Amino acid sequence: MSDMTYDLIVIGGGPGGYVAAIRAAQLGMKVACVESRGTLGGTCLNVGCIPSKALLQSSELFHETQAGLAVHGIKTGKVSLDLKAMMDRKDGVVAGLTGGVAFLFRKNKIDYIDGFGTFTSATTVSVKLNKGGTQVATGKRVLIATGSEVAPLPGVTIDEKQIVSSTGALALEAVPKEMVVIGGGYIGLEMGSVWARLGAKVTVVEFLDRVTPGMDGELSKNLQRVLTKQGMTFMMGTKVTGAKTAKSGVTLTLEPAKGGEEKQIKADIVLVSIGRRPFTAGLGLDVAGVKADDKGRIPVDADYQTNVPGVYAIGDVIAGPMLAHKASDDGVACVERMMGKHAHVDYDKVPGVVYTWPEVATVGKTEEQLKADGVEYKVGKFPFMAVSRAKVQGDTDGFIKVLADAKTDRVLGVHIIGPDAGTMIAEAVLCLEFDGSAEDIGAISHAHPTLSEGLREAALAVAGHALHI
Q: Given this chain, do its domains 4-150+278-347 and 163-274 carry the same CATH topology?
């Protein structure tokens, strides 16, 4: 491919970058997307959201077959695990979806430049091609959508063999006997759940006093309780200060987060999952004149434009939740605003989901945030134990919580721990986007028997008249 000039160059082919590229092409722009991984889809499709959910699904089925079918009158013989087949299925799902993105690029006439892009000026990107050589692209606009990388932990070196990131945890060749997960956030709990279901003894070490920090406290407490019941062990308020590897495994040195006596624990595999940080290394931001803050994030204005005119940024490299769907929403809004449209993304209304089982889903304000802000609110709660469909499925752990303004009844937040919470939260997001009330949710007909009836009951409970409890 000879050197080319484009209306828009997107650096990064993840859920933010590739969606932005497609929308820009739909709006009539000539677009190139630079991606170094060798496949499109970014961390999410390749080594994040999609492969982890594939393994979560497979491990749920394995556990269900082992322990959950007899109550339904289904008798099985000895259940065994073919881990290679499970991994092959995961890889097949990933290949199908990344190939689908490549098809969409061809359909929308987007140039996919396979290599690592570096700014040589604010309008020029030099790409070191994966196949060899260099490609130079010039853009009227350049969009940084390079996503994030695993945050390192001092004293613990990731080798992707014994001490792994989420990438390595998705590709283990055997089920570990003992696994330690450092970090009680979304990714750590999901991957811990996978390997616990497949037979590993999983211990989660968390620096703070609860899992999923930032989530509604009542949900965090109940999630930890359910996962403990499933066999996971939690060491809260604990700091990891060092790690030593040997043929026999990994020895971690721990101490209380508030200070105290050291102790050691051993594991076959250690997963480091303490969060992610923006990935901008090697992009040449300084050459382009683009500034970043002390956390490595790139400040942008309402149009997603950086301090340099014509250079934009979205997704995990800017402020806001580090979530794939937020990055996609950013991408669409960014290119639409380039074309004079009025798109925007309200980060207070972006849902978050933990894909353990039960799932946890949340949108809007937590009780802790409302109390800190001095907002008067009412609470409506409804347990899945009282939801007919949950009872039928045998998925009765958890509850739905609706938080509404005490005076106006406007829904301020919805928090769910229970079966299929990630799907149910969409109704709550829609309600928040339209500034709907708890009464609105309660007045809408919900099909029976469905899990979402629980959301209606929780909304009715805000006014004190839930029907089935």
A: yes
How far the first Cα of the chain sits from its last, in Å, is 66
Do residues 110 and 9 touch, judged by C-beta distance below 8 A?
A: no
Catalytic residue among 63, 342, 448, 468: 448
358-462 folds as Enolase-like; domain 1 (3.30.390)
163-274: CATH topology is FAD/NAD(P)-binding domain (3.50.50)
pTM assigned to the model: 0.96
Maximum CA extent, the chain: 69
448 is catalytic: yes
Rounded to whole angstroms, the Cα distance separating 135 from 116 reads 10
Q: pLDDT tens-digit profile of 144-192? A: 999 999 999 999 999 999 999 999 999 999 999 999 999 999 999 999 9
d(CA 229, CA 19): 40
Rounded (5°) CA angle 303-307-309 = 70
What digits encode the pLDDT tens for the residues 257-308? 999 999 999 999 999 999 999 999 999 999 999 999 999 999 999 999 999 9
Q: How many CB atoms lie within 10 A of CB 88?
A: 11
Q: Does domain 4-150+278-347 have CATH number 3.40.50.970?
A: no
**Are residues 219 and 354 in contact, defined by beta-carbon separation less than 8 angstroms?**
no
